[in-house]
Amino acid sequence: MKNMKLFGAIGVLLLASAAIFLTSADHIDAPGVASTSSDIADLYAFEGDNPNNTVLIATIQGPLTPGDVTNNAEFDEDVMIQFNIDNTGDFVEDLVIQAIRRGDSMYFFGPIVPGNVGVTGQIETSGPMLSVRITTEEDIEPVTNIVDGMSVFAGPRRDGFFFDFNRFNLVAAGEVAPEGFLPPGEASDFFEDLNVLAVSVEVPNAMLGEAPPHVGGVLGIEGLPNAYNVWVTTKRKQ
Amino acid sequence: MKTYKFPIYILTVCAALFFVACSNDDDNIIDQSTCDDGLQNGDEEGVDCGGTVCEPCAMGLDFSGTFVQEDAMGRPAINTVFGGSGDVKNFFNVVAISERQNLQEGQTETFQQTFQNTLELYHDVYGASLGVDLDYETNILGLDAATFTTVLANFDALQVAPQGVTTYFDGVNVLTGRTINDDVVDISLTLIFGGMTGTRFDGNNDTPQLTTDGIDFGDREVDGFPYLQAPNN
Prior knowledge:
Helix content of chain A: 10-25%
Radius of gyration of chain B: 24 Å
Number of domains of chain A: 1
Largest interface: A-B, 157 and 120 residues
Strand content of chain B: under 5%
Number of strands of chain A: 11
Number of helices of chain B: 5
Order of helices and strands of chain A: HEEHEEEEEEEHEE
Distance between the termini of chain B: 50 Å
Shape of chain B: elongated
Oligomer: heterodimer
Largest sheet of chain A: 5 strands, antiparallel
Number of helices of chain A: 3
Number of strands of chain B: 2
Order of helices and strands of chain B: EHHHHEH
Strand content of chain A: 25-35%
Radius of gyration of chain A: 20 Å
């Protein structure tokens, strides 16, 4: 039994390694979205330089090689990027911030209570809205916009993710036992020279409501501070 | 599990914004003084929007339609590392978080079961290559395999604390956010392979190095909004 399980395991992992080549945090995580305009690469959420603000960053379409591939990469006008904020602790979005491109600009809607929750939705045009011209390679500085304390940005950026991804594939396939990963200096950051398309939003916490008790408490991890649950989705116009 | 009962927070959306505001681009030194005066003036196509100076007007743009989810992400690397097959990964992306704990039509096992199997397979494969039996060990957060994979499969969101330090893990604080320079790979590897001490397979005492990939933040910089560096050329 053990051998059968192992045989299956090795097969699965080798296949997985092949299938997820070039993947990382969520870059090209699944064949259905790999190399499409809706493929999410990463999500970051942290306190802003202004401690009363929370920063939300989604990166998509990564990894992009520098030069033409990056310069020609475009946000899809049919793909809405949505930050989902659960402030009641039930993992259903109570507020959303949406971003979608029109022409050379990115339009942001929210934070707003969404009309629909879950996998199907609309652009919530009745909420706060602001826009920013999408930064291009011709801009020396990133183009940003700020209204009522909320900042927005959209454009290509250096991929913030760092990972010896090639070595991980070897580790996962059991091919580099007994050493495992390489020491600093010998390891290689696969994403060092790669780019992504990024959307950044910095929003006053006052617009996000009170945070619920941390989900860790449900799972027996005590003492964690109240925290929103935040995730990002991409949704395509039908 | 405990059931949380919280009052539903009633959001009072702040005063309605003008639907288009002006850019504050540092690199465009142009006069936008008419862009927030509440009047349609200059060559504006609407009130404070359009024309050669102001932000484009939203009015007239088409934001209609129904949008359907294609990808989703909370914590880093979850679907990639634990999804196993392409079919499962595809499915995980299009099921709402709150539904993921339930067996979905077409599934023979829940996402949690798949994730737990994958977690054990990583150990089996590495154990086989070392010639020993290897199983997951309860990790430094005190989570056994079932609980750990439940957290990953059924609660895949970043927890973000509006007060205090925000970090995936900084040695003291844990699961209060994710910054650009958080080493989420090492943290994840430690939770997967580190065992109760976090040092189970850390390269010392003749163990393999499975808890750090040897890569850190490097020369990336985070210098204010938008908090990511200019693209590589």
